[in-house]
Amino acid sequence: MAIWRIMTERKGGSLRRIKTILMVCMMGIVFEGLPLNDYYAYSQEKGVTSVLKGNSGSMDFNACVKLALDQSPYFRENALEIDIRRLGESDSRWAFIPSLTIRTTSYLGLEDSSGMKLNIFLSEFDPVASYLTLKASKIFTEIAILIHQKSIADGIYDMAKKFLELETLGQIVVFQEKVLDQHLENVSFFQARHKAGAVTQVEVQLAKGQLAVAQAEREYVSAQQSTIMEGLRQFLNMDSSQQLDINLQEIKHQAVGPRNPADYSLEQARNRSFELKIHELKKELQNYKISQAYARFVPKLTVGVHQTTDLDATQVDDYYYSLSFRMNLWNGFKDVNDVERQKIILNQFKNEMRLVEIELNTEWQTTQRALSESEAALKLARLNQEMLGLKERQTEMNYSSSKRFLSALLDRRIAHLEARKDSLMKSLDHDKKVLKIRHLSGDLFGSLITVSPTKE
Description:
The structure is a single chain. Helices cover 67% and strands 9% of the residues. By secondary structure, it is an alpha+beta fold. The strands form two sheets. A five-stranded antiparallel β-sheet has the order 1-6-5-4-3, with no helix packed on it. Helix 3 runs antiparallel to helix 4 (127-195) and helix 4 runs antiparallel to helix 8 (274-295). The protein is elongated, with a radius of gyration of 37 Å. The model is unreliable at 1-16 and 18-56 (pLDDT under 50).
């Protein structure tokens, strides 16, 4: 450690000059800090806005997305983490100005003691470490922003699936009501035939059992609708007293989108992947940590002002200015090992990023194959629906006024309705696959959310 002391001759205004210097320094810190505090009060909520406005009354999918951005607790959690990271970033900026410490000393029991002595110290000044810490803090903030955006993208994707399910279930309810009507007519038919002695009681019970199954299926669909609606209500942070009225007319256009699934590419998914961006920032952050490990070899500077006493100087109440440098000469290779440790961690991050790329590629290819399967299944379901429709018309043509073939006609109608319900479920599965591809490509998030660029 090298220390330089410069003894100054005491004058009547020396203490006043010291106070003036301290005041100027404090004012400089305050005025320099004002724009920083105001600038970094910026919140991420201001950087994520919906391109659509909410409306009163029934809400479509876009309006629900806007409402979720405004009040969903699932989005607020990560937004608060951004605010915490902003404060850490502000702390790193202020670290360029060393901490100021004032210490007073009063020696008791001395007859000629001149009262309290003033000592002023600045903390160790390490601009290299402060610069690297600030860069790392900025990356932490960017990572928090990306995590927040990823949670929004996942939330929108989950909401879109729920809206598609609600639309399909609403259509299934309509067909199920028609199925119930056919079963009721079938029960009446067999009861009348039983009274005439044309059928047995077993056939009547069988018709009633089919009606009970259809009624149970109707109740099951209603329960599914209620569960999905309650999930949306909780996601939107709505009270039980609030009415959630949703509009499903434009849901396929809003969620699935007008674009052909073939227009989305794996390259788009890679460029817009939040996880890949986060891991890229983690690699950059680790490079700064490696630099921080090297920065520990740089000597540290300390500045202080010390007022002498009759215990340590012949000339009392003079001020000594000290300038100190500190550097570790031996600490058991901890600094050297830390450099190697941070390099190994960087390789770990590179390997993790490669795994994320592989997982994204696998998920993309799996979804593409599932999309092809759903297209084939939907085509098959529609062909079966057309075939049963033809059989229904054929049975209607063979239906006689004696109503002897009414049961067969009702069975054909029920089968046709069940085939239409199956087509709706296959269409829902296909839409979900298209929606997932759109979500993976980043188009769903990008079409609904405008992200303001991060201020430097």
